[in-house]
Amino acid sequence: MAEETVTGAEALMAAAVQKGVRVCFANPGTTEMPLVAALDRTPDVRGVLGLQENVCTGAADGYARITGRAAMTLLHLGPGLANGLANLHNARRAHTPVVNVVGDHTSWHLPYDAPLTSDIAALATTVGSAFTVAGREDIDAATRAAIDDAHRRPGVATLIVPADHQQDLAAAVPVASRSAAESAGRRHARVDSGRVKEVATRIRSAGASTVLILGGDALTRRGQQAAGRIAALTGAALFSETFPAVAERGAGLPAIDRLPYFPEAAIAALGDRDLVVIAGAEEPVAYFGYAGLPSRLARPETLRSLARPGEDAEEALLELADLLGAAEPADSITAPKAGGLPDPDAPLTGATVGQTVAACLPEDAIVSVEGGTCGYPFYTASAGASAHTALTNTGGAIGQGLPVALGAAIAAPDRPVIALQSDGSGLYTAQALWSMSRENVNVTVLIAANHTYNVLRTELNRHGESAFGPKAAALTSLSDPRVDWIALAAGYGVPGRRATTVAELSQALQAAIASDGPHLIEMSL
Amino acid sequence: MAEETVTGAEALMAAAVQKGVRVCFANPGTTEMPLVAALDRTPDVRGVLGLQENVCTGAADGYARITGRAAMTLLHLGPGLANGLANLHNARRAHTPVVNVVGDHTSWHLPYDAPLTSDIAALATTVGSAFTVAGREDIDAATRAAIDDAHRRPGVATLIVPADHQQDLAAAVPVASRSAAESAGRRHARVDSGRVKEVATRIRSAGASTVLILGGDALTRRGQQAAGRIAALTGAALFSETFPAVAERGAGLPAIDRLPYFPEAAIAALGDRDLVVIAGAEEPVAYFGYAGLPSRLARPETLRSLARPGEDAEEALLELADLLGAAEPADSITAPKAGGLPDPDAPLTGATVGQTVAACLPEDAIVSVEGGTCGYPFYTASAGASAHTALTNTGGAIGQGLPVALGAAIAAPDRPVIALQSDGSGLYTAQALWSMSRENVNVTVLIAANHTYNVLRTELNRHGESAFGPKAAALTSLSDPRVDWIALAAGYGVPGRRATTVAELSQALQAAIASDGPHLIEMSL
């Protein structure tokens, strides 16, 4: 029997399929053309085009947050990777598996320093690991190694593939069974029982002076229910980390708000506690350093880590709850049902938007939250909303919300997705709207249009600049001209409408959710 | 007399002003707020906001191409710099001075690895040099060193400034006289006379089998006129490098087309010549490596460098022309005047667009050219157009044309600027339209809307993929949905109209040029 001969690009795609890759968020160029051609011979991988690379990388992050499995991105040399780095930074902070495939010049062309030549590996290692394919025979193993590495840490892995190695022919590697492939998702190291016992002992001692901070896989339904049992038993307070990658929320879960963003409030919440237990997150530190305030938000001597990122926080919480003898979940640990709509004629503010979206939230929705104006109030209001999944900006590189919503919608086509998006951050990657239109995903984009970089005005105030000069005012303003989001959406093929009151927003939101495909609502704040 | 006390941010701005910085293209965040506040106390520096960092860095490149002096960018930590890296890659390839000022966390907060922490210097060094401010007392010297370094190489220098050092107070450094400051522009090393003599000897011997390839400062009016004299005397052929940063073009200059992009044509132009003299550029190499074609486009033994980038190519060409005894410029060396408009009813194609824009070009225009569809035909057609300056994409990181046009227009408010822009590349940084509107710059944006990544289809064909599969077709298509550039422009506050014939384009173009502020014309190809 004649051996099948395939290109390096085809071998890469075959290895990726075997490792469970099903989607490629792509913005290819010349050096990726053999991979594009190979995609057409790889029915198991869907290609999704982004008009700018940060759309692709953010979408891969969103996809992996929902599925637990890495999507592939396909990017063009160093500049293509550079354009996608900001959302890879967020993915790194989210501990999300993402595999970038980046073409490079044909290997024998690299020494000539052609215009597009740059140090791709140096860029890649700022957000994760880099694997460079050294030859055609290397492709299968390098692809598997990159995907495994992305899942193992979990984090961002970049596979750099010179164009000639993509084109070269060699014998195909026999494909193992699909069932083995599908198991290539995230895996977590089990937490040592001794550590769980030690935390239990400390909680028994600290009692109601305990705080539990949940992140990562502590924010699954099971993880939160276990935390709720512990809280009901001990009186411990519960927070999620300030910017969780994925948090289950709403009906049937305890009310767990986020640890406050500004350090004064976070320190107030943690500073007088005897015990701060962290599960699935790193130690909470201030987002920025402010003179006179500590970087570490809890007193170091009160900190205990139950599970670090990459460890199985959910199981550790269940074990902890059982050890403590915490009762099965009762109504007392679930958040009260969210209030109804605010006054229909009320103008839109952060608070009324948060309440309206929480009240209108369909069952099993995914909500991508970026920006503070409506994001914090929504989070507070939605503890008692319909069961849903919240995704937040983990790394502070703004322009993440729309791409993550796109990726989440590709991952879960049957779930409604809502992108609750501040306008300033949305403008970094507005191109995501076009991919939403092309893929006809069920995303409702809610733009909080206050036409300012509001967080920066708050920060200027914190710096004692209460009277802004004209440049500070201009550099924190998105007016003059006002961005017209309805027009932008139309430009990218997404129908849009404007809402100025609670009634208009709730009607527009319900209509958008009820009909297929993407919609945008510009909320005039 | 009491010593004046200023913040680090104010000291930075004072040093920048003294070194000739007049514009700051900014997309600041929390860690840059003291610098934003300092801008308001620095009347000599204009702040221009970009909605995404690649707009800022590309605009700084365009500004420096026209003025020869660095503009400052103001970017937010690692992710902000990452978002602007692609156009910094282009600036690096253009040998353009650009100074990035990037805020970092307060120095004592850095060890805690807060969400936005990343390796900023590692990112910066992929495109140039990095200077990290170690303390308040360091700011003045570090700012001067970064600006000097950007001008000296010339290239991209990044100054990383922890937020606390921006805020700290210290005595102001006395400001030297402004006249010294203004001299901080680009300077070029003089080419050794021995090298010029050696090249002259070789040209005398090779005669009409000589090719001169001009780049960098060989493409000034004086440089090209000297090259034209040499060509008239010897029969030598003239080319500019394929992607010049700045090229003077049109009336009074010889017809100098660009070295062809694809290697077959470039090799045909150079391969049988006895002598290939390069002035102001590096050795020409293929843009990408193609199997069976060499990377080096000229035979190595025929190459002679008259002036490398950073050396004074213009003076070297003048000296060379004099040494050869080339006569003063005559009509014979200037390009024939461009033809008139094509048939007014002709549909828009690359060729008719190129001819129409060349025929309508106002005197002293600046034309930012990005993309091949109309870019190459325009360049060929415009040799005999009104005198103008052409700026092209030097590094292949697409999304450069609109930001460069913005920066050029800020640099030269009295000159009409035209951005001849392919649609695919324009979509990477369409946010530049908003800054054009806000600054009310005289930029006419011409979008070549063929709704494909056409170069990629050409490359797929070159790879032998003549029948595209559905994914290859989709991943190289900007249809489904068609981007509506008129709507996008409206979203960003720029008036737009559509043109489908030569007559419509010429009318729209003339109307746009005649009225103030930015305009966009979507050319349906």
Question: What is the topology?
Answer:
The structure is a homodimer of 525-residue chains.
Chain A: E1 5-7, H1 8-18, E2 23-27, H2 33-39, E3 46-49, H3 53-67, E4 71-76, H4 77-94, E5 98-104, H5 120-125, E6 128-132, H6 139-152, E7 156-162, H7 163-167, E8 169-171, H8 178-182, H9 193-206, E9 210-214, H10 221-234, E10 237-240, E11 247-249, E12 257-258, H11 263-270, E13 275-279, E14 303-307, H12 313-324, H13 350-360, E15 365-370, H14 372-381, E16 388-392, H15 401-411, E17 417-422, H16 423-426, H17 432-439, E18 443-449, H18 454-462, H19 470-475, H20 485-491, E19 496-499, H21 502-514, E20 519-524
Parallel strand pairs in A: 2-3, 2-4, 4-5, 5-7, 6-7, 9-10, 9-13, 10-12, 13-14, 15-16, 15-17, 17-18, 18-20, 19-20
Antiparallel strand pairs in A: 1-8, 11-16
Helix pairs in contact in A: 1-2, 1-6, 3-4, 3-15, 9-12, 10-12, 13-14, 13-21, 15-17
Throw out a few tags for this protein:
homodimer, 525 residues, alpha/beta, Rossmann fold, seven-stranded mixed β-sheet, six-stranded parallel β-sheet, 40% helix
What would you say this structure looks like, in words?
Two copies of one chain form a homodimer. Chain A is globular and about 65 Å long. Chain A is of the alpha/beta class and 525 residues long. Helices cover 40% and strands 19% of the residues of chain A. Chain A folds into three domains: 5-182, Rossmann fold (3-Layer(aba) Sandwich), CATH 3.40.50; 193-333, Rossmann fold; 350-524, Thiamin diphosphate (ThDP)-binding fold, Pyr/PP domains (Rossmann fold), CATH 3.40.50.970. In chain A, the strands form four sheets. In chain A, strands 11-16-15-17-18-20-19 form a seven-stranded mixed sheet, with helices on both faces. In chain A, helix 13 crosses helix 14. Chains A and B meet through helix 2, helix 4, helix 5, helix 7 and helix 17 of A and helix 2, helix 4, helix 7, helix 17 and helix 18 of B.
